[in-house]
């Protein structure tokens, strides 16, 4: 079994299964298999959190392949992306369309889902954190 560890090296595990879905339907299939097998699922982004929040014991979902821009509404300024997109890639894409995120933390190698789930934020009293910049999202549950 391969070893997973976070960026700091202070959290590690050997998940029994590592899945790398590239679509919502594949994520659903992974979760359904895990439910059938009575296994717990942890989604892992870039492993930036120094806590055990992402430590996978059984089924690990690696979002590396869920990193695409799905839709761009330049008029409304709404971008639809997959959860595993890395913030630096998202920022480069936005810049190429003369758009930007209103506020961002300084660690841009995090995935969007990871940054949101760990309350990543930028600075400024008049700016929101990343989670408040999201209009909608889909959540896969067991």
Keyword list:
142 residues; three-stranded parallel beta sheet; two-stranded antiparallel sheet; 3 helices; globular
3D architecture notes:
The chain is α/β, with parallel strands linked by helices. Helices cover 20% and strands 17% of the residues. It has helices at 24-36, 87-96, 112-117, and strands at residues 4-5, 12-13, 17-19, 41-44, 59-62, 69-73, 78-81. The strands form three sheets. Strands 3-5-4 form a three-stranded parallel sheet, covered by helices on one side. A two-stranded antiparallel sheet has the order 1-2. The chain has a two-stranded antiparallel sheet with strand order 6-7.
With strands numbered from the N-terminus, the spatial order across the biggest sheet is 3-5-4
| Sheet with the most strands, sense and barrel status | 3 strands, parallel
Backbone structural class: alpha/beta
Percent of residues in helices: 10-25%
Gyration radius, in Å: 16 Å
Seen as an oligomer or otherwise, the chain set is single chain
On the 0 to 100 scale, the average pLDDT is 87
Terminal CA distance: 25 Å
Overall tally of domains: 2
**Low-confidence runs (pLDDT<50, min 5 residues)?**
none
- The dominant shape is globular
What fraction strand? 15-25%
The ordered string of helix (H) and strand (E) elements is: EEEHEEEEHH
By DSSP (H or I, 4+ residues per run), the number of helices equals 3
Number of strands: 7
